[in-house]
């Protein structure tokens, strides 16, 4: 993919935007981009540099993402709404064409890596709560204040806030600091010759550092420390669970939508599968799937195409096995309903469903204590309502008793808070 119209090849030490940013290490990549840790010589901070593929359609997608990230940054001057901050953007000319580049605040590992790091065992409920609070804060902001739908919420697109300064803690972050601060003034005043000198020096240093870095290639950046090969238990004690929502490449305005098919398969809401139209509540569905995955380590729905039926129909069957039969009106109300449902609201090709409700699943398969399972199921079930308008908003979820337990795993506490709420209500 490193060809015309494709990715831009980056070497460690490469300068961007007139020398302001210096590439340090690859952080990740997506379909359209590679993401690099870079050093911002103007602010002496580390940043994430997202470099888009150059072809016209990718540039268009980057402009789209910049529009949504800018709107999110403009409405959140204090940078407290759990959405990744866009710091800068510019064009970079390379051998494969012009690449739009986004400069984002540097964040840590994704929740997907967190789940993997924890060996798919599921996180403690107090950790899950901290993470949920951040995601819901982000969604509440996007939905209520901006009128924006994220449309691709999933563990991969939620990043932990890095508590590690890559310059100060190179071992834990898997980084060798390539630059303390570039000598001289790389930005301005230096003129061409100084610039070249600095570049040469950088490249020499970079070469030396590459060997060291590749030794640690498997280590995780920013949050979780070294990826150990041993089978020892891993503790997440002391790791701050603050996180932020990233990847606005698929975002849309509630009143100006672009695509009918949105979201990543496993996190896709039923109204999207059935093409019945959608709104903010599709993000709430994805949030529910994500919360379940954090608690159990397993995806809530992992549909597969089977003998005589497709992925969509399997997906609908899995939903109904967990949540009960879809109300007939909803089942037959979408543009795609006729492909999957008969006029009674039963699936055409998957006839026998094994009902396994959420609280029993949490107790029987995932061995959650009964009280904890019931409380979590009480929080999650309304979010996984088939009727989109019945799902609680992010704001309502933030106010739910399950989100507001002060002592960890204290069942009595939730019980009494719920009773209080009923009395008040
Ligand atoms: P795409 O739209 O191509 O999927 P993303 O924005 O999801 O791109 O970024 C791809 C990957 O790059 C992420 O999964 C993550 O590993 C890494 N990444 C993205 N943004 C940041 C950031 N701000 N800080 C650290 N890593 C990031
Ligand atoms: Mg992504």
Please provide a written account of the structure.
- With 425 residues, the protein is an alpha+beta fold.
- 36% of the residues lie in helices and 13% in strands.
- It is globular, with a radius of gyration of 24 Å.
- The chain binds adenosine-5'-diphosphate and magnesium ion (MG).
- Magnesium ion binds next to loops.
Write the layout of secondary structure elements.
Layout: E1 15-16, E2 21-29, E3 33-40, E4 45-52, H1 56-74, E5 86-94, E6 97-105, H2 111-117, H3 125-146, E7 148-149, E8 158-160, H4 191-215, E9 243-245, E10 252-253, H5 270-273, H6 281-296, H7 311-323, H8 328-331, H9 337-340, H10 358-365, H11 370-380, H12 394-398, H13 411-424
Antiparallel strand pairs: 1-2, 2-3, 3-4, 4-6, 5-6, 7-10, 8-9
Helix pairs in contact: 3-6, 10-11
The chain binds adenosine-5'-diphosphate and magnesium ion (MG).
Magnesium ion binds next to loops.
